[in-house]
Design goal:
heterodimer, A: mainly beta, Immunoglobulin-like, 2 domains, four-stranded mixed beta sheet, four-stranded antiparallel beta sheet, 1 helix, B: alpha/beta, Rossmann fold, two-stranded antiparallel sheet, 5 helices, about 15% strand
């Protein structure tokens, strides 16, 4: 499971810090106050399984919508997390150091012939149990200004998200249809998130080519500080 | 006695503010009993909200007081945590009061750990919501600045403002509204004197008197 991978990478970082950072009783990770915290997840946006390898684990991330995105796993900030991502014969390295309170999504896109790994970093400050947070992750190099639209009127919820970046907005938890466009409101792709729930956070990923973007959406999960 | 809380079974859980006699495990518990409620108070020193969800241990003590019983304090260095699920199954409360904030506010850290706090809070409120039990979350008091806890008035204010938006569907009681910064002296920067815990317990009870009718539907 992808969620386990981040934990394994975090555990490796913990081993490296064994002399300087001691986990509290019963806890695997020295994360969370007062030791600081950051979150890491892997998302497989390709059409086939990919393998993520860390010095501690080797894990396959499926490509079906139910399993392509892992949880945001707590990891120790300020520590280099290393490994590699494999798709067929192609390999890309992982070497990322998270800042305190940062949420990093490692997005895997492309094909075995053209594998791409993109780090999308943010330090969100919109956690709210009364609202819903919607994030648009643009992984489509051909979509210069991705937009997240709502309802039949195509009201703009998130606008002008450049490739390789994130747009986010807090909204009321209403049941409304969502869609993505690349600037032309007449050409949209629907997003299937189900009804928006108060207090929850959702990610919409845009991949593919600019003229015909593919869209994948899911509710975010944040793992606890437990093995 | 106000009849609003009379007859309710109230489960109170909290952090170190509940783990010493004359703290809230004495004052709030007594005040709620005087209102006619049956009260079950549990405190775990140093516990975050998630520690009431995912079994772990606490290292600086835990305490329990059941209804009219004595306060039982366990100061062993490594004690298993209570889970809110188990306490709900045991006591079948029709109101849960959570007192927590100081252990999660990141005192001494430059950046406010909002995402981590939210995950902790959301995990606990989610378990309670799944049982359809009304709940009230009590935020931290001002405390004192300049202690080894690194508590500051600015961070307490930031934490209280965040909790107000993070604890739904629980209602929020903002303890900073009960006093001005520095009004309630502390013994160590975080824990109040006996008079402070008396005042805090009375103020929480008064707020519960106002909130409870909106939350608890009597048969």
């Amino acid at each position: 499971m992808p969620r386990s991978l981040a934990r394994m990478i975090g555990a490796l970082a913990l081993m490296a810090l064994a002399n300087t950072a001691v986990a509290a009783d019963g806890r695997l990770y020295p994360s969370g106050p007062p030791n600081g915290v950051a979150y890491l997840r892997f998302v497989n946006l390709t059409s086939a399984d990919v393998t993520v390898v860390s010095p501690a684990a080797k894990i396959t991330i499926p490509s079906d919508d139910a399993h392509r995105a892992g949880e945001f796993d707590p990891v120790t900030p300020g520590v280099a997390l290393t490994g590699s991502i494999q798709f067929g014969e192609a390999t890309k390295p992982i070497d990322v150091t998270l800042q305190q309170n940062e949420f990093v999504t490692v997005a895997i896109t492309g094909t075995a012939d053209a594998l791409q790994v993109t780090l999308l970093r943010e330090t969100p400050t919109d956690f709210n149990a009364l609202k819903t947070s919607l994030a648009l992750f643009n992984l489509d190099q051909g979509c210069a200004k991705a937009q997240l639209l709502a309802g039949d009127q195509h009201l703009v919820v998130v606008s002008n998200v450049a490739p390789g970046s994130i747009g986010r907005r807090m909204v009321n938890p209403v049941d409304i249809g969502l869609a993505v466009s690349c600037g032309d409101a007449a050409q949209t792709v629907p997003v299937k998130l189900g009804g928006l729930v108060a207090g929850e956070r959702y990610s919409v990923f845009v991949v593919g080519s600019g003229s015909t973007p593919q869209v994948m959406g899911q509710r975010d999960e944040q793992a606890p500080f437990r093995p | 006695m106000n009849a609003v809380l009379a007859g309710l079974a109230i489960l109170v859980i909290g952090d170190s503010h509940m783990v010493t006699r004359d703290y809230l495990i004495t004052t709030l518990h007594n005040d709620l009993m005087e209102q006619g409620a049956t009260v079950y108070t549990y405190g775990m020193c140093g516990a975050n909200a998630g520690d009431w969800v995912y079994p772990t241990t606490v290292s600086c003590g835990r305490a329990v007081r059941l209804d009219k019983g004595e306060t039982m304090i366990d100061r062993r260095p490594s004690i298993p945590t209570w889970t809110v699920d188990a306490l709900i199954n045991e006591h079948h409360p029709n109101l849960i009061v959570i007192e927590m904030g100081d252990t999660m506010a990141g005192y001494g850290q430059a950046a406010f750990p909002q995402g981590w706090i939210y995950q902790q809070v959301h995990a606990l409120t989610g378990r309670i919501a799944a049982k359809n039990i009304p709940c009230v979350w009590v935020g931290p008091p001002w405390g004192s600045e300049g202690s080894t806890y690194h508590k500051t008035f600015a961070r307490v204010k930031e934490m209280s403002e965040f909790l107000a938006t993070a604890v739904a569907p629980c209602k929020f009681i903002d303890s900073t509204q009960f006093s001005k910064p520095g009004d309630w002296p502390t013994i160590d920067g975080q824990h109040l004197t006996s008079s402070g815990y008396r005042a805090w317990g009375q103020d929480i009870t008064a707020q519960l008197d106002q909130i409870a009718p909106q939350l608890v539907h009597r048969p």
